[in-house]
Structures are given as structure tokens and as C-alpha cells.
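Example 644, ligand adenosine-5'-monophosphate-propyl ester.
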Amino acid sequence: MLINPKPVTVEGSYVKDYEKLYKDSIENPEAFWGNIAKELFWFKPWDKVLDWKYPYARWFTGGQTNIVYNALDRWLKTDVSEKTALIWVSQDGTDKKFTYKELNEEVSRFANGLKSLGVKKGDKVTIYLPRIPEQFIAMLGCLKIGAVHSVVYSGFSADALKNRIDDAQAKVVVCSNAYPYGKKTIESFKNVKEALKDNKTVKNVIVVKRIEGATIPVLNDLGGAQRSEHAHGVKNTVSSDQSLQSYLWWHELVSKQDTICLTEIMEATDTAFILYTSGTTGKPKGIIHAHAGYMVGIYTTLKWVFDIKPDDIFWSTADAGWITGHSYILYSPLINGVTTFVYEGTPDYPDIEIWWKLIEKYKVTKFYTAPTAIRALMKFGEEAVKKHDLSSLKILGSVGEPINPEAWLWYYKNVGREQIPIMDTWWQTETGMFMITPVPSVGLKPGSAFKPFFGIDADVVDDKGNKVPINTQGYLIIKKPWPAMFLDVYNNPARYKETYFEKIPNVYFAGDSAKIDEDGYYWITGRNDDVIKVSGHRLGSAELESAFVSNPKVAEAAVIGKPHEVKGESIKAFIILKVGIQPSDELKAELVQTVRKSIGPIATPDEIDFVEKLPKTRSGKIMRRVLKAQELGQPVGDVSTLED
Ligand code: PRX
């Protein structure tokens, strides 16, 4: 099935002839990216577009810029200054709007606040905030002064937060006292207190008061912050619980600060941020992104894939705790000078029509979400969508996991009214930007992510690196560097090389499997490396297994992802108990809590089986592949290395 774009979409599209432009871009990617980079602001132009010393790519070397200069400062002397940069709608339906000028002022205040606490260029700041404006202000504030943010998704547990704070050696943590989540109140501050027990690097904790009133129990815990009201909010060490941190309220800190703060001049390859993501080992990896290359990559991809025009209101339903939120809620929309839209709540709160109501009310023009959300909303039928006037929408998008043709067609028919195209964008935390994606003017096949973006040299190969035949599944690889390519894995260069550049020499190994069809369209079939995608959230089998074995009753654990109708994949665990421990439903419930405590509610297992043995290689490695095949009733394949 080929779905062609409507003439009006093609007319408005930056790219009219994908094939020709792709060919040109691939013949000389450096010229291609260099030309685009000139559209942005540089304190000093680059000497070289690309410095490629396998496996490290450094883009725009010798150049100086800052993402925040391009996202905010650049607009201040233009008409964009008075335009809305951010529309934020709270769970209770009230909204806050910030013009570019206002956002810059808030960011400058926060940046000055950080400076007043002694934060300098290169210092790490962990941001553990829900989807509220301060999340974005904090991110921009860090980059403005050259500090490096590490955003931790607010749904992660205290243990997961602790690992990420410790690995980054953060100097400051920004969090909220609590926050509303549907009908619940999440006491996020408790997690921070727990994560900071024994911590030696964090000096200051800045607390946003998202929920008013001291009736929230956690506020009583906020010793330092409450005392800080008497101590002018700064440098107020809490000694009662032996912690080394000063706690201060966000509003107190920023109220004293100036609304002007010079944006730091950054070398092109300086680190902008670290974002932790799951891989094949028990410990998440800190993916490092630089200012310049990342900025050029995300600017271009959003502009061309979503045909960004000055009046756009772009809504990505992700959270800034993930790469989608970094690249396409915050930075790219602002670098493109348009309005980014954020809803605090979940897709089903206060009811399952909320997304469609918001699109109608705020006249959202471009809407970007995940297949899992589409599948969840599909369950409630078409009526909830059809009631609403969604005629402001011009382009739709999908990300995070393969979108099944059924969900694609539902989205196309009911949200897009068969008038507007869906951009199914394949990319990763590591790639920073869209890699395999359509542009609006091309013909689409439901379920296919189309072809590589301009300048992206992708392919599908076997384990020797040879191209596989048409319609044959193989490994997705990228053969040449791209601008938003990550710099490294923080504190772990060996892992950078092993995971991404040594499985198949000379190319980037994505960890996904794919097929290319007779028309050159890519079909992504899922991960090939023990990474599990639950509702689009990335979790590692090994990470889940170490969570299980942290329970003293567990001897061994093996975790696999199983296909799930709504979530894409669900978590199934096989557990060997310690001698003398009896299996029971209570114990299953206890283990669910163990995992939630270690990672967070997103990692809640769906199934737990108690077993006597696990399939292992002679060297003792659990063969999850065998478990998975058995579970799905598929052939187990080569088991010659199986011990028993
Ligand atoms: O398996 C692919 C899947 O998400 C993985 C990357 O996860 P993460 O780093 O958390 O970034 C998610 C948002 C970019 C990929 O390796 N994935 C992402 N987008 C798609 C996808 N799978 C199929 N189709 C997509 N459009």
C-alpha cells in the first residue's frame, strides 16, 4: 500500500524531490551540513566541518557557538522575541505562556542563580523534574552558562536517580517537592533525599514548589528549604541529617537574580548534556552530546521532516527525561523559532479526549507521539477523536518503537482525517536526531520509516557487514558520521567502542534489526540486543535482572521482552529462588516492588515465573534468546553452546 501526500502538503514542503536531494547530500555530506550550519549563529566559524577519526567524529571543529544562543538570544532583536516560545498546560487545564523574551528572562535568572551557587562551565547538574516549565528553564539555564545537564526522567526511582547522580558526579540537583500525576501525588522530593544519602558531590538542591501548602508530608522533610526562608535561600547547610547539601527553593533563588545573563561561548565540540540510557549491561550509559553538531542536526531534521513554518505550534507528547524531549520538545523548536506545546498530564487524564481537546483549543499544527499511545487510545474507539475539530493539524509523527500498520492507519484516518502524512521517525538517544524518516512530500507505506534522512548513509547487513538481500532481516548500520552523533559514553570509552563500533568494523551498529524492501523502504523490526522497549521506554534485560537479584530471596534472574498489544513489549522474568525460599503469589508481588524500587514504575514486570534452571552457555551466560523463542513458541535456533 502506498499513500501519496495531498498536493497542499507537497506545495508546503521544503523538500520536493527526496531522491535527488538525497543523492546530492550523500555525495558530499560535509558540504551539505556545512551549508545548513551557516543558517545558525556562530561566535566563530568552524575550520573544518567534520574531523572523523574512527570511531570518533567531531563536527564543526574550531567553531564556537552555544545551543542557547541559537534557541533564545538570536531571536531577541527580531519579531520572534514577542512570539510565544512555550505554551504549558497544567493537569488542571490552566495554562502558562512564555514569549521568547520572557523565556530568556526566566532562563537568565535561573542561570544567574546557578552561578551564584558557584556552578561553572563543565559542571554537571542533574535535573529531576516533572513536565513543568522549570524543567525546560533549568535545561536552557545550564547550557547558557556552559554547565552540563543530565536530565533524569521523573518516573525513575530513588535508586535509579542515585546511580545517575553518582555517575555524572553532579554538583547540583534540581527537583520538585512533589507533583500531580493523574489523581495521585508523587512525592518526588523523598526520592531525592534518599538518592543523596552518602552523596559527596552534590552541594546544592534546588526545589521547585509544584504543589503548594505544607500539608504534603514531604514538605515537612524539607528541613533545609524551610530554614532557607530565614537564610535568604542560599548556602544553608542541613546538618540535622548529616547530609552535605544545601536545599533551597527555586522561587527564592531566582527572585533575587538579574534577567540578563551572558550566554557562554562554547567550543563546537564542548559537551552540552549527558543523557543516561539503557543498554546491554546492568548499568545505564551516559550518552554525551556536543553543542554544535547536535544543534545543526536537530535544527535541520525537525525543519524538513515536519516542514516547520513560523506559525507552527509543535506538540511532542514525550517528556524531557528522554532524548525526544531534549531534541524535539525543547531545543529544535526554539532553534527554529516556533512555539512548542507541552501538556503536563498523561493521555488519559482527566479523560481520554484530553489530547484532542488540546489540539482543538490551542490549534496545534504538528503533532508527534508514540505508537503505544496511539494503540492505547485506539481501544477507546473513534468517537472520542472524531468529535473534535483537528483541522489545524498539518503533519503527524511517530517515534519510539515500530508502529504496526493497524495503528498507523488508525492514526492516519482518525487523527489525520486521511489528509495529512505521518512521519515515522527512527532514531535513538545516541543519534540525537531523526535518522530514518520520511519527509512530507514522499509516498508512505504504513509501518515503514521510509528511507535515510539527507546525509545519512544507512544500510542493513549480516554479521560480517555484507548487505543482505531485499526483504531480508539484518542489522541496521550507519556507515558515516552524522552531526548529532554522540561524542562518547561518559566515563566509559571502552563501552562506546565495543557496543557501537566493534560488532561490525568501520560502521555504527544501531542495535536494531531491519529490512529494506524492493523500493528501498526501511522496515524496522525491533532491537537485536536485549534492550526492551516498554511503551517506548528503553530498558535493559541486564538492568532488570540486577534489580531482581537485589532481592535477597532471589538467586538468579533472566528477563525477556514479550510482544504486547498496547505497550509494544512487556517484561517477563524467570526467577530462580535461593534454597529454602518457597514460590508464592506474595513473593511475586514483593518482586514487583523490588523492581519498581530499583528502577521505577515504568519497569513493572507483567509476568514472573519461578523456575529451577535457566538456559546458559558453558561460560555461564544466560541465553535469553532461547527463553524468548520458547516463550513465543518459535524455533530455538542454534543451541550448540547451550550447557544443558
Ligand atoms: O529500537 C529503536 C526504537 O527506539 C530505540 C531507541 O530508543 P531511545 O534511545 O530511547 O530513543 C527513543 C526516541 C528516539 C531504537 O533503537 N525506535 C525509535 N524510533 C523508532 C524505533 N523503532 C521503530 N521505529 C521507530 N520510528
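Summary: Confidence is low (pLDDT under 50) at residues 214-219, 224-240.
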